[in-house]
Every structure is written in structure tokens, then in C-alpha cells.
Design goal:
The protein has 519 residues and is an alpha/beta fold. It folds into three domains: 133 residues, 2-Layer Sandwich (GMP Synthetase, Chain A, domain 3); 162 residues, Rossmann fold (3-Layer(aba) Sandwich), CATH 3.40.50; 170 residues, P-loop containing nucleotide triphosphate hydrolases (Rossmann fold), CATH 3.40.50. Helices cover 35% and strands 18% of the residues. The strands form four sheets. The chain has a six-stranded mixed β-sheet with strand order 3-4-2-5-6-7, with helices on both faces. The protein starts with 18 loop residues before the first helix and ends in an 8-residue tail after the last strand.
């Protein structure tokens, strides 16, 4: 992309120390001015010439796919409300294990201790030709206190918001006083109930299920969530009592933007979701690590519907975790992958730590758009505010392009500022630069600031294209390997010229050699 002319000013470049970018800090304005004077038609003509010049180089099979790529558009549509099937019971009877068996994958966190599940967590499930929403709940106990009471309240809400209920009982233990309390709760709800006798692993244990007739809910279905025994018959009966369309759920929006709320434990992620939803959707407690399963919720903010995903707090490196914390971290990583934009929540009353930075890096590696939310802003004093700004400059300088909002999830202060930040990040994440403009920009950049000589040769950018959006990914066809510092320089100038607020940018290279001439 250069014309071979040596610029009047060529700074010394030391790989990796950022001196190249710094040396051109004030000189790049001229490049931008020259680029802006090029009209779209001229830019496209130049891009076509550069693309044709690639025929002189050895291209690989997938290079053609990159050069001829296309982009689709996401639509928003309404879907009928799926019937809701809630799974309830006292702690440690195997509710989450049964949920995983019905889903056919290990989705819900399962551990051989009571009280692992705390929130009501919804999953989309299917059986034969029927689709439905399956809701896992925490164990219900009477007279519960503290966090256990919050868990029980979530289970009670799940019953009220369900079309039918699977009541799970441990067949080997039999009907307990807690099970009888759950039965009274179910009868008050007037929902159709299917009694499930779990942990019947073989025919020898089947008589254990017969004693559950005493609960007065009809015939118990003996199943083994661990081995899958009897689950098919149970689901056949569940489909019989489930309506075709839900009487309690709302129409589903097919295209709400998906927002993952991530951060360290106890920074206020669940409080943020509850405040946005205007309801106690998830359990909130001062105990760090309250949330374990990702919780999806459709919320209305700024007259629009969003799908917020509350996630478990990431405590430490995954390979150092055990039990429920280990699986919760895996679910959090999956939730980030399912989301389009991640809101990383910080507790401003505590210093920004290594774990906060690691969570930001996790979002960057996933390629999702990024918004930084500094929570508990109403508890900040002037001294801590000054320290916080220094910490942001030091630890978050590499994501200075991410929108920042200062909020209080507890009071809802400045929550409305979250929507413009999300919109800006998602717009950048979806942005595609026309090929003509991209090549015109890189041509001006390379002519003014060519890559430094390496071994007597000067790598050149032959052609550039944006291979994809979400995140914006650029492919540069080059004659040689570009130094990391020069790639950072290109990325920085792309941001200055085209914005990309809140979105990571990926710049990939494809080094191609000129095709040898036939004699």
C-alpha cells in the first residue's frame, strides 16, 4: 500500500515498547484529513484494484471465502409463550439432576450437598414434538431463615408462575414432614402436579415409591435422575398435563439484546438485575457467592426489552476451584459466550484487584462488547474517588475505550445511563466498515507511516477486508509479518477514525508470497 517513497520523518521503533504509537501521536491528524477527502466511489475503485492485485500472490482456499464474505442481519420477532414446567421439592432430593436429565446435558449445577441451587433458573427444553420452559428451583423448607428463606420464596414464586409442577421426593427416604408442607403449598396454588419419586435406581427399589401414595397427589412416577430410568414415562405424562400455550408466561421476544452481568462475588450483580427487573428476581444476600446458576430475565429499560443474564461471581482461577464454585465458573463462561455484551461490575468501595482485571480479560477473549459499571457509587467519599481514578488509569488503561457508568444497584441511581452505554457498545460491535473506506484509510496510513525495515525488507499491506462483525475482525493480506507494535498502531488509529466504542477489535494477518513466474 505504499508507493516506496521514504517519509521525511521516520522515528526509531523498538518492538513492544509503544514508542511507534507515541511518536506519531500528533502526526496522524494529517492522515485522517487526507482520508476524509476521498469520496466513496474513489475508495471502492482503489479497493477493487488492490483486490485484483492479489491474483499475483499465492492464495489459499479459505482466502476466497474471506474476500467474498457476506453479512446477515438479526431480526426481532414475537414467539408464542411456551408452557412452564417447574421442578420443586425439599433440598437434596435431586431436582437439578432431574433437570439435567430432561435437558440432556449438564446445565444446572449439581453437588452432593443440600442447598446448591438458590435461584429459580429457566431453561428451554423439549420432549418429542413439544417445547416448554423448564424451571429449576432451590430446596423449599418451612420456617427457613436468612438466605434459605430467600431461596424458599423463589421456589414459591416459581410455583405461581408455572403451568404445571414436578414435585420431586426422595423415594428412599419417604414422605417427610417438609414434603407434606410442600403438598399443602401446591394445593393452595391450584396447579396440576406430577409426583416424582426420585432415586429409584432399579426394580428392587420400586416398592419404595408406593409409600408416597400417602401424600394424596396420585400415582408417584418412579425415576432415577442419575441413570435416566423412568424419565421418559414421566415426561409423557408431563406433556399431557401441560397446556399448549402458557397461561402465565408472556409472549417471548425473539430478538432482545443479551447482556451478561459479570464480576467478582458480592459486587452487586444480582442487585443490579433485581433493580432493572423491578422485582426480587434473584436471591440477594451479603454472603459472597450467593448466585451459582446463570439467571436469564427479560427486563424493560429505556422502553425496550433486554435479556439480562446474572452470573456467579468469579472467585479465582477455575483450576483452583472445587465443587459448586467450579461448575458455577464454567456456567459463567458459557453465559458470557451466549451474551452479546458484558457488563463488568466493580465495587468502588474496594480497590480494583487482579481478579477484576482477569474478568475483563475473560470478556475480551470472548470477543463480546464491554461496559464497565462502577457500583455502590453512593457510598464513595472524595478520598476513595481520587484513589479509584488512579486505579482505573493504571489497571484499566487497556480498555479505556469501554463505556463507563457510575451506578448504585441498591437505590437505582443512574441506572438509566446503562442503556446509552449498552447501545453504544452494541452499535460498535455490529459495525462494518466498507471495504473501500477501510483500504483507503490504510493506504493513507501506510504511505505516511510505513512499517520499519526488517532484515532489509519492508512488509506491506496488500489488501484489507473486514471478515466479520461481532466483534469487528479485520484481515490484512501482507507481504511479511507485521510487528506487534505496528498492529497496535493500526488498531489505535482504527478506533480514532471509526469509533468502536465499547467493542474489542481483532486484526489478523495473512502473509502471502508473490506467485513465481512461469518460464
Amino acid at each position: 500500500m505504499t508507493d516506496g517513497n521514504t517519509p521525511a520523518f521516520e522515528p526509531e521503533f523498538v518492538e513492544g515498547d509503544g514508542s511507534f504509537e507515541d511518536a506519531y501521536e500528533t502526526a496522524s491528524d494529517t492522515v485522517i484529513e487526507n482520508f476524509e477527502r476521498i469520496d466513496d466511489e474513489t475508495a471502492e475503485m482503489r479497493a477493487d484494484m488492490l483486490r485484483r492485485s492479489l491474483e499475483e500472490y499465492d492464495l489459499e482456499a479459505d482466502d476466497r471465502e474471506v474476500l467474498e464474505g457476506y453479512f446477515g442481519e438479526d431480526g426481532t420477532f414475537l414467539m408464542p409463550a411456551l408452557p412452564v414446567l417447574a421442578v420443586v421439592g425439599r433440598p437434596n432430593v435431586g431436582k437439578s439432576a432431574l433437570v439435567n436429565r430432561i435437558l440432556g446435558r449438564r446445565e444446572a449445577v449439581v453437588e452432593d450437598v443440600p442447598g446448591v441451587t438458590r435461584d429459580r433458573v429457566s431453561y428451554r427444553a423439549g420432549w418429542l414434538d413439544r417445547n416448554f420452559t423448564l424451571v429449576d428451583t432451590g430446596g423449599w423448607e418451612p420456617d427457613a431463615r436468612g438466605i434459605d428463606r430467600s431461596v424458599a420464596q423463589q421456589a414459591e414464586m416459581a410455583i405461581q408462575l408455572a403451568d404445571a409442577v414436578l414435585f420431586v421426593v426422595d423415594a428412599n427416604v419417604g414422605a417427610t414432614s417438609t414434603d407434606e408442607e410442600v403438598v399443602r403449598l401446591l394445593r393452595r396454588s391450584d396447579r396440576p402436579v406430577l409426583l416424582v419419586a426420585n432415586k429409584v435406581d432399579d426394580t428392587v427399589q420400586e416398592p419404595n415409591a408406593s409409600v408416597l401414595w400417602s401424600l394424596g397427589l396420585g400415582e408417584p412416577f418412579p425415576v432415577s435422575a442419575l441413570h435416566g430410568r423412568g424419565v421418559a414415562d414421566m415426561l409423557d405424562e408431563a406433556m399431557r398435563i401441560l397446556p399448549t400455550t402458557s397461561a402465565v408466561a408472556k409472549e417471548e421476544v425473539g430478538g432482545p439484546r443479551r447482556v451478561a452481568i459479570v464480576g467478582r462475588p458480592n459486587v452487586g450483580k444480582s442487585s443490579l438485575l433485581n433493580k432493572a427487573a423491578g422485582d426480587e428476581r434473584v436471591v440477594v444476600n451479603d454472603l459472597a457467592g450467593t448466585t451459582r446458576d446463570p439467571v436469564d430475565e427479560l427486563v424493560e429499560i429505556g422502553d425496550r426489552t433486554w435479556r439480562f443474564i446474572d452470573t456467579a461471581g468469579i472467585r479465582k482461577r477455575v483450576h483452583l476451584q472445587q465443587g459448586a464454585d467450579f461448575y458455577a465458573s464454567l456456567r459463567t463462561a458459557t453465559a458470557i459466550e451466549r451474551a452479546e455484551v458484558a457488563v463488568v461490575v466493580f465495587d468502588v468501595t474496594e480497590p480494583i484487584g487482579v481478579q477484576d482485571v482477569r474478568i475483563v480479560e475473560t470478556v475480551l477473549e470472548s470477543g463480546r462488547a464491554l461496559v464497565l459499571a462502577f457500583n455502590k457509587w453512593d457510598e464513595l467519599d472524595e478520598e476513595r474517588r481520587w484513589m479509584l481514578e488512579r486505579e482505573i488509569e493504571k489497571d484499566l488503561a487497556h480498555v479505556a475505550w469501554a463505556p463507563r457508568v457510575n451506578i448504585s444497584a441498591k437505590t437505582g441511581r443512574h441506572l438509566e445511563k446503562l442503556v446509552p452505554a449498552l447501545d453504544a457498545a452494541l452499535e460498535s460491535w455490529d459495525t462494518r466498515i466498507p471495504t473501500g473506506k477501510l483500504n483507503a484509510f490504510l493506504t493513507e496510513l501506510a504511505q505516511a507511516f510505513p512499517h520499519p525495515l526488517r532484515g532489509g525488507k519492508q512488509p506491506r499491506v496488500l489488501f484489507a477486508t473486514q471478515a466479520q462483525t461481532r466483534p469487528p475482525t479485520f484481515v490484512l493480506f501482507t507481504t511479511g509479518f507485521l510487528d506487534p507494535g505496528y498492529r497496535r498502531f493500526i488498531t489505535r488509529r482504527l478506533r480514532e477514525t471509526f469509533g468502536f466504542v465499547g467493542s474489542p477489535i481483532r486484526v489478523n494477518m495473512r502473509v502471502r508470497e508473490r506467485r513465481s513466474k512461469k518460464k
